[in-house]
Specification:
Structural class: alpha+beta
Radius of gyration: 35 Å
Order of helices and strands: HEEEEEEEEEEEEEEEHEHHHHHHH
Shape: elongated
Number of helices: 9
Number of domains: 2
Oligomer: single chain
CATH class of the largest domain: Mainly Beta
């Protein structure tokens, strides 16, 4: 019959494990709180610098006035009368071709120990407008249409990010920019003198645009044919939006990417004509991310924390049973608390130094103190070194899982299966009934409950 003492200890250790799980949840909440402060700093910097940027345009916005005569029935005169009516409407005209050449430089802004990544972009845009004959903009038969005004519109999600006044030349005309767009978009516009030309016309343009922002830079493809080339020394791009680049290269020195999008593949023009704002337009671009920020990595490490404590407790319990030793639950508790504090130490250090260095220091401190302590409670330094070596392997495996996010699940599953298989093979010839009976009758050096 299995010893009541063994069953009682198993229940006590289970309760201790639950208490340590609660401690890990408290540390996880602290990680969330620190990550929230990081995001608050980013919002604060964005409020005084510039947020993530999206650029739409340039395109033409033409205001046309229509006049026509309509026959209506006048009830007082009891006769048909002619009434002149007027309306104004806006016509948008988009480029036939646009080619973007963009280069981004990355910098950081700080608030205390928290940092936010910002960028400066320098770009040139070249393109061509194919202007139709004015009669194509006219209101139809029996309608007298005239051109009221025209403007070039450049939509920018956060105009505070304009580092310099853009320089644009359309044909032979150098444009002068003014705030606002009048097109339902944030941004700027430039008044344009356009005559009611009877024949189609072609107008080439060039635009020098410098924009700064935080996080990412996105463009809306409004031309019939769009080509975007982008380069940046940041080695961790996340290409996002409605279109991925046709070609891209990413290395430790940075990235280059090129997009090619035509009007048949997108609906940005239709969305803009329907009055959608900047947020409702298709876009392409990149977000500059940092895959080794401490908070997501610490949070992922914590997901394995209870597993590590459970493995250590199981190894202790197995060793105690096989070697007929007696380890007090308080001693189990000290070992578990030390492992829980590893994650708190990792969080605190990683806010000030690189995550890899913080992980190494926290692992060395935890494994070092546990090696000495376990060697003492097991009565032999060699046993402590054995457990210390096991912990080093476990923490090394955890660091590998954190660095290979795409393969973390399969690697973690293989690790757990390997540990279980090793324990089953090592204990396959153990007579557990005889072992527990032996443990229950053998006195030991430590007191048990």
């Amino acid at each position: 019959m299995m010893s009541i003492r063994i069953v009682l200890k198993a229940f006590i250790l289970g309760g201790l494990a639950v208490a340590l799980l609660f401690a890990l949840l408290v540390i996880d909440g602290l990680v969330g709180e620190r990550q929230g402060r990081q995001k608050a700093v980013e919002r604060d910097i964005a409020a005084s610098y510039a947020a993530e940027q999206q650029v739409a345009g340039p395109f033409l916005l033409v205001t046309v006035e229509d006049r026509w005569t309509e026959s209506i029935y006048d009830r007082e005169a009891k006769a048909q009368v002619e009434v002149e009516k007027t309306r104004r409407r806006e016509v948008r005209h988009y480029p036939e071709r646009m080619e973007w050449e963009l280069a981004l430089e990355v910098d950081e802004r700080e608030r205390g120990i928290f940092k936010a990544r910002v960028y400066q972009s320098a770009g040139t845009v070249s393109g061509r407008f194919q202007l139709p004959a004015f009669e194509e903009w006219a209101g139809g038969e029996n309608v007298d249409s005239r051109l009221v005004e025209a403007r070039v519109v450049l939509g920018i999600s956060d105009p505070r990010g304009l580092s310099d006044v853009p320089k644009m030349v359309l044909g032979d005309t150098k444009l002068e920019w003014k705030p606002g767009t009048g097109a339902g978009l944030p941004g700027i516009h430039a008044p344009l003198e356009v005559s009611e030309h009877p024949e189609p016309a072609t107008a080439e343009f060039t635009l020098d645009l410098r924009v700064h922002g935080m996080g990412g830079l996105f463009l809306t493809p409004l031309a019939s044919e769009n080509r975007v080339a982008m380069s940046c020394p940041w080695p961790h791009p996340s290409f996002m939006g409605d279109f991925l680049p046709m070609t891209r290269t990413v290395s430790d020195q940075g990235f280059t990417a090129e997009w090619r999008v035509n009007a048949l593949a997108g609906n940005a023009r239709q969305a803009l004509d329907e009055g959608n704002g900047m947020g409702g337009l298709q876009k392409l671009g990149v977000r500059l991310i940092d895959p080794i920020t401490p908070y997501p990595l610490t949070d992922r490490a914590l997901k394995y924390g209870f597993l590590f404590i459970g493995i250590t407790f199981a190894a202790f319990f197995l060793f105690e049973t096989l070697r007929q030793l007696r380890i007090h639950p308080i001693q189990y508790g000290f070992v578990g608390v030390a492992q829980a504090l590893f994650f708190l130490l990792l969080l605190g250090l990683s806010e000030h130094i690189a995550f890899g260095a913080a992980y190494g220091i926290a692992m060395a401190a935890t494994c070092g103190v546990l090696t000495v302590y376990i060697g003492s409670i097991l009565g032999a330094p060699s046993r402590g070194l054995g457990f210390g070596g096991l912990l080093v392997l476990l923490y090394g495996a955890l660091y590998g899982l954190l660095q290979s996010e795409d393969h973390a699940l399969v690697a973690g599953s293989v690790l757990l299966f390997g540990l279980l298989a090793a324990v089953m093979l090592l204990t396959r010839k153990v007579d557990w009934y005889a072992m527990t009976a032996s443990v229950s009758s053998k006195p030991g050096p430590a007191l048990e409950p």
